[in-house]
Amino acid sequence: MTLAGKKVVVVGGSSGIGRAVAELAKKDGADVIIASRNAERVKAMAAKLGATGIPTDVSNDESVANLFRSTGPVDHVVVTAAQLRSGPFKTVSMDDVRATFETKFWGAWRVARAAEIRAGGSLTLVSGFLSLRPRPNSAVVSAINGALESLTRALALELAPVRVNCVSPGIIDTPIRANMAEAARQDMLAKIAAGLPVGRVGQAEDVAEQILSFVRNGFATGSIVYLEGGGLIV
Ligand SMILES: NC(=O)c1ccc[n+]([C@@H]2O[C@H](COP(=O)([O-])OP(=O)(O)OC[C@H]3O[C@@H](n4cnc5c(N)ncnc54)[C@H](OP(=O)(O)O)[C@@H]3O)[C@@H](O)[C@H]2O)c1
Q1: Proportion of the chain above pLDDT 70, given as a percent
Q2: Domain at 171, CATH number
Q3: Could you tell me where the DSSP H helices lie in 72-138?
Q4: This prediction's pTM
Q5: What stretch of H or E contains 153?
């Protein structure tokens, strides 16, 4: 199924996986709208991609409602927006934990409620491998990812004929780790790559291809794909 003429909204489309989705959808002829919080970044990325940019904060009900008032009915919605603040379970602040839920979980929830998706269209969420492969200091992210995967299946039933799917990435080299020192980031990514059957970490385009396959495949709903370079089998 080509996306020519389809209206595709990428919430989180100014960076990383969302940017790659927006770019591929645009190449396929879609009318692409990107939404994310930082107005300057949305504007700059929208201009680069030839997309429309709408500043939106997914942690705010009114901001998300405003996004979909501006777009009107759409064909496909992809949610990649998240800002994660985690830490040791016993000491991470409740403010950080709540803020993480507000963007990644409640943000996806708000988008799913506010978007008017045409019949046969789709909603694709992004969770993450920590739902199945927890690590210390990230319990809140594990819990959110698991909740998003359950939400996907519930919404696939309740929002039908709109299709709802979820992609769960492993480690992907995106600006999400921009606050790490560059040498430490490269070292961490190299160590992870060496332990994976595919011998490399993921790129944003790897995940975007999977998201777009859900967008295009009219038989896919309630599906969750774990895309982690074999990380769950080692
Ligand atoms: N990269 C990985 O290794 C990895 C692994 C597993 C799962 N994931 C998941 O994949 C998704 C995308 O991650 P990524 O690596 O592409 O991250 P990224 O490059 O940091 O992009 C995150 C996007 O979310 C937007 N955003 C953050 N807070 C927002 C808010 N309150 N309202 C609206 N937009 C907001 C950012 O926009 P602003 O710049 O405007 O804030 C940015 O466009 C996330 O859910 C992440 O948890 C990533």
Answers
A1: 100
A2: 3.40.50.720
A3: 94-100, 106-114
A4: 0.98
A5: helix 139-158
* Residue 228, H or E segment: none
Closest residue by Cα to residue 58 from 82, 86, 74: 82
Asked, for residue 183, whether it belongs to a domain, the answer is no
The pLDDT tens digits of the residues spanning 57-87 come to 999 999 999 999 999 999 999 999 999 999 9
Catalytic, 127? Answer yes
pLDDT tens-digit series, residues 83-115 = 999 999 999 999 999 999 999 999 999 999 999
Tokens of 104: 């990644």
CB 40 near ligand 1, within 6 Å: no
Q: How far apart are the first and last CA of the chain?
A: 35
pLDDT number for residue 104: 98
Orientation of helix 106-114 relative to helix 61-71, angle to 10°: 40
pLDDT-based confidence at 1, cuts 50/70/90?
Answer: confident
Spatial CA neighbour of 124 closest among 216, 230, 49: 216
Instruction: For residue 205, give both structure tokens.
Output: 């385009």
In a domain, 233, yes or no: no
Task: Pick the catalytic residue from 36, 59, 86, 127.
Answer: 127
Q: Name the residue of 15, 133, 145, 225 whose CB sits within 8 Å of the most ligand 1 atoms, as the mutation to test its pocket.
A: 15
Is ligand 1 within 6 A of the CB of residue 16?
yes
β-sheet bridge partners, residue 10 = 34, 78
In a domain, 198, yes or no: no
| Residue span of the structural domain in which 97 resides | 7-176+203-218
pLDDT score at 230: 98
